[in-house]
Amino acid sequence: MTFRRSSDRLDILMVVDDDFDTNALCQTLLENGIDCRMERCVDGTEALEYLQREHGLLSGKFIILLDLSSPQVNGYDFLTTIRSDPKLRRSVIFVLSTSSEKKDINAAYDLNVAGYILRTESGVENLQIFRFLDAYRSLVTLSDLMLR
Questions:
Q1: Domain with 45 in it: what CATH number?
Q2: Which ranges carry the Response regulatory domain (predicted)?
């Protein structure tokens, strides 16, 4: 799905299995006119297959938003695989989780995530999440995964 406002766009690969979360995030983009192209994979297996192809509709510079509790290949296994792949290890990954357990947070950072975003059940912070990711993309030079 594509949400456009200008030519300068945020590209996100979302690895989230929950349809409600996905719909809430997409609704936030639409309601606020956030210029974003987003691809969704429902689990780590699908995301790894997607990343090992030509990245679909995303540019070579994108951010991965990862739900740690995805089925099949869980978030930690996904991170371990990504970080051991020479072509994908530079991926910028933010974890999206409802777990505030120190062990979960530390395990994610041990696998070199760019950040751990703690979600509440209300979803009120969705706009803040996208504004943060857009600001991050604007300020930080992302590695181009297409250049191998």
A1: 3.40.50.2300
A2: 12-134
Judge if pTM exceeds 0.85. Answer: no
pLDDT tens digit string along 89-126? Answer: 889 999 988 889 999 999 999 999 999 998 876 656 87
How does pLDDT run across 14-64, given as a tens digit for each residue?
A: 898 876 677 777 777 777 777 778 888 989 899 988 888 865 556 667 889
**Residues of 35-66 as b/e, b for ≥16 C-beta within 10 angstroms?**
ebbbbbbbbbbbbbebbeeebeebeebbbbbb
Q: What is the distance between the alpha carbons of residues 79 and 109, in angstroms, rounded to a whole number?
A: 10
Q: How many domains does the chain have?
A: 1
- Torsion angle of alpha carbons 37, 141, 7, 128, nearest 10°? 50
Domain membership of residue 30 as a residue range: 2-139
